[in-house]
C-alpha cells in the first residue's frame, strides 16, 4: 500500500532565497511533498495586497538541485503567490500551506501588515489549513535552528487535528537558544499599535521625500497575549480569523437612527 | 462663541482625482473642516500594505481652488496616507477619517483586499473613528449622487454616537437610483471568496506572463449578511474589527499536545 504524503505549499514574504523560507522548506521536506511558490523579491509589509493593475510573472526555478521540492518564483505579492499556486500550479488542493519563517515579529497588530500572515490567511480563505511562522529576529543572518523542532510539532498537530473553518494560525518564535524556549502558548493578539516617525530627506533634485519608520507600542499587559508569551520565553500561537465582523456591536449600531 | 467644526481626514484607494473621493469631499465640506491625504495613483487591491522598502513623496496640491479643503497627494498606499496624515500633516488627531467613495464593492471578503477599508482600519488602529464607503459600480463614470444623502446620515451618526473601541464601519451602497434605495441595514460580513482565473499571455520577448482576474462566489445566503442587504436594495453597514483573534478556538487548540 502506498501511503500518500501530505502536499505542502510553502511561501513567504522575504523572497524565495531568504534563509527563513529555506529553513521552513527543510522541515517540510521531512513531512510531505513540498511545492514552493514564493516572491522573487522582498514583500515585507505588503499586507493582503493583490496585483490587479500590473502583470505577473511566475517561473519554475531550481534553488538547490539536491533538494526534492518543486519551486516557483513569482513577481507578485505573497497573496498573489498563494492564488497562483492554488489556481495555476498545483494539480490538487494542498493539505497545508505554511508561510515564513519570517525574519521579524508578526505578533499583535503586526499580523495585519504582514505579507507572511496574509499569505496564510489567503490560503485559509481558500479552505486550506494554514500557518504563518515568524522569528523575532529581523537579521538575514538569523538562526532558525532552535525554531525547527517547534515548527515540526505545530505542523504535525495541524495535520493531525485540522483547523476550525475560517481559522489560520499565527506562530511567533522568540529569539532564544532552544534550551531557553519554555514551550508553546495559545494566545490572543495583544492590543498594540505603531507610532510612526517619518524621516524627511531631500533628494539630489531638491525634492523632499520620506522614509517610514516607527516605534511599536504595546499597551496590553494581559498574560493571555502573544506579546506576554514572547517576552516570557514562549512560542505564541494565535488562532486568527478573516471574518472581520464585530458581531458584538451589530445590535448596538442597529439602534442608531440610520433610517429616520 | 466659536463652534469648532469636526476635523475630517479624507482618503481613498482610487487616487486623489477619482470621482468617488471628490463626491465624498463635497459631502464632508458640509459637515467639517476637511483635509485630504490620498494616493497620487490608483491603489486598488493594496490591502493593508505599507511602504517600508521604498521612499514616499507627499505634496500639497490644489485640485479645485474654489473648494475649502486642504489636499495632499502621496506616492504611497492608502495606509501610508493615513499614517502620513496623522503623524506628519495634521496638527491634531482628526475627529473622523472617511475613505472612498470606492468605485466598486468592498462587501464580504473584499474587505480584506480593499485599500479603501484598510485606510479606515488603519485610522481605527490609531484610535480615530473611521468609515469606508464603497459604491457597487466599478466605472469611473459611476453616479455618486444617490449615495450622498446616506453618506451624510451615517457620518452624522458616527460623529454623534462615536464608535466602539476597535471597530470601524464598512459601508457598501447598491448601484440604484435614490428612490430605489430601501434604507440602511447593519449586517455581518458574508462568507464568500474569489475563484481566480489567470489569463496567461506571451510578451513581445516570448516570456509568459499573467493577468489576475476571477469570479466572486458567495456561498452565504444569510439574510443578516451584507451581500443579502445589497442584493435587496439596502445599504450595508458592517462593524469591522482588527483584533483578528478567533477567541472561541483558543481553548480547543490549547488541548493539543503542543508541549509533549
Helix count, DSSP H or I runs of 4 or more residues of chain A = 7
Termini separation of chain A: 69 Å
Strand segment count of chain A? 11
Return the CATH topology of chain A: Stationary-phase Survival Protein Sure Homolog, Chain: A
Percentage beta strand of chain A: 25-35%
Spatial strand order of the main sheet of chain A: 3-4-2-1-5-6-7-11-8
List the chains of the largest interface with their residue counts. A-B, 81 and 82 residues
Oligomer: homodimer
Task: State the order of secondary-structure elements of chain A, H for helix, E for strand.
Answer: EHEEEHEHHEHEEEEHEH
* Name of the top-level CATH class of chain A: Alpha Beta
Mean pLDDT over the residues of chain A:
96
- Biggest sheet character of chain A: 9 strands, mixed
Radius of gyration of chain A: 19 Å
Structural class of chain A: alpha/beta
Work out the count of structural domains of chain A.
1
- Indicate the low-confidence ranges of chain A by residue numbers: none
Walk me through the topology.
2 copies of one chain form a homodimer.
Chain A: E1 7-11, H1 19-28, E2 33-39, E3 58-61, E4 70-74, H2 78-89, E5 96-103, H3 110-113, H4 115-125, E6 130-135, H5 145-161, E7 167-173, E8 183-186, E9 192-202, E10 208-218, H6 226-231, E11 234-241, H7 250-254
Parallel strand pairs in A: 1-2, 1-5, 2-4, 5-6, 6-7, 8-11
Antiparallel strand pairs in A: 3-4, 7-11, 9-10
Short summary:
Chain A has 260 residues and is of the alpha/beta class. Chain A has seven helices and eleven strands.
